[in-house]
Amino acid sequence: MNKISIFRTLFSIFALLAIVVPCEAKKKNTTIKPVSIQLPTRSTVSQRYGNLDYGIRIQVRNDAQHDQYLNLSELSSKELGNLPNISFEESPEACAEQYLDSYATNLGLKVGTSSNSDFILRVTIKDFRLRIREYDVKKKNFSSSGAMVISWELVDPEYQQVIASTTSMGRGSANTLESLYRPYSESFKKALDGIDWDRIASQLKIAKTARQEKNKEVTGAGNTALEHTVIRWYIISKPQGADVSWRVVSSTPDVANTNANFVGTTPYESTEAFDIKGLTYNNSGNVQIEVTCERDGYLPQKKRFNLRQAIDQKEISAKFNLVKESEEE
Q1: Cβ neighbourhood burial of 194 (10 Å; 0-12, 13-18, 19+)
Q2: Sign, CA torsion 133/137/140/146
Q3: Cα dihedral 209, 215, 219, 221 sign
Q4: Helix (H) or strand (E) holding 197
């Protein structure tokens, strides 16, 4: 090969490199960086509750379809090429649980204190998505909107539902390039903030009177006003020294009849709270307490007291005038 041919070949190579290198450099400079989205995990709400009797545990489940987190169905293929890939730094359900823990703690609730006595707030993410309707890199003209839908319910330590499943929705929107993905966080926060915490807090405190929770059933866990309603017992007899016992006589299937329970001898005076399984204020009118007074040489005597009346009056009192067995003969 002569010098002229070698020179022409080298010139062609350099000319090709002059074209390829700038193109590669241009391609690298216009590469769109992926976007990592951090959802809120901390709340700034102020304290407004105190001295609640029960704590709360928060459980979050995600039933949203992951492939619908980002809706780009209204964009052209050219516009799609200008959008970055997105990802969440933490899963929406993990962020929601952290956010709600922070929210409840700031309000003054006891969060996650004891698995045996805590109520449980169950939250389910039903839908979570961002919709981009327009996108133009040159004109920076676009609109995006976000929506999140959750449902929540509250169950007591016995896993009985005390607040039925309720829906909360949050929305957000953006119309600038810099805030394109902001509606994720906006809708997320608004949906979680929509939970009715006043209603939840009302369930975490034992009512002062049984009348205030007419349908709450005694289970033995000590979480009803009935179990904290103190009844004064005052039983006397003539003569004194008689054995006193009582039993439950029920005409409702919610409360079972019981055998007699010895409590002491006359004069018998005590203050006690009832622990009758299945009892509610509403069905207490169908339940009676039968008090029996017995002494050797005397006929046994019984008196019955309507439990609703005893609860309202906070007292069961009676005097037994015992009759000798020989006198009846």
Answers
A1: middle
A2: positive
A3: negative
A4: helix 197-203
Whether the Cβ atoms of residue 136 and residue 174 lie closer than 8 Å to each other = no
Residues 210-226: b if buried by 16+ CB within 10 A, e if exposed: beebeebbbbeeebbbb
Span 242-260, average pLDDT: 95
DSSP state of 68: G
Q: So what's the pLDDT on residue 114? A: 65
Residue 169 pLDDT level (bands cut at 50, 70, 90):
very high
Indicate the residue type of 320.
F
Angstrom distance (rounded) from CA 232 to CA 234: 7
243-250 and 161-174 strand pairing: unpaired
The answer to whether the Cα torsion of 182, 183, 186, 188 is positive or negative is: negative
pTM of this prediction? 0.65
Find the distance separating the first CA and the last CA of the chain, reported in whole Å.
Answer: 149
List, for residues 183-204, the tens digit of each pLDDT value. 999 999 999 999 999 999 988 8
pLDDT digits (tens, 9 = 90+) for 91-101: 999 999 999 99
Nearest residue to 96 (alpha-carbon basis) of 121, 67, 66: 121
Reply yes or no: is the peptide bond before residue 34 cis, omega within 30 of 0. Answer: no
Reading the block at residue 230, the tokens are: 């103190």
The proportion of the chain whose per-residue pLDDT surpasses 90, expressed as a percent, equals 58
Distances (CA, A) of 104 to 38, 55, 92, 96, 169: 21, 10, 18, 12, 19
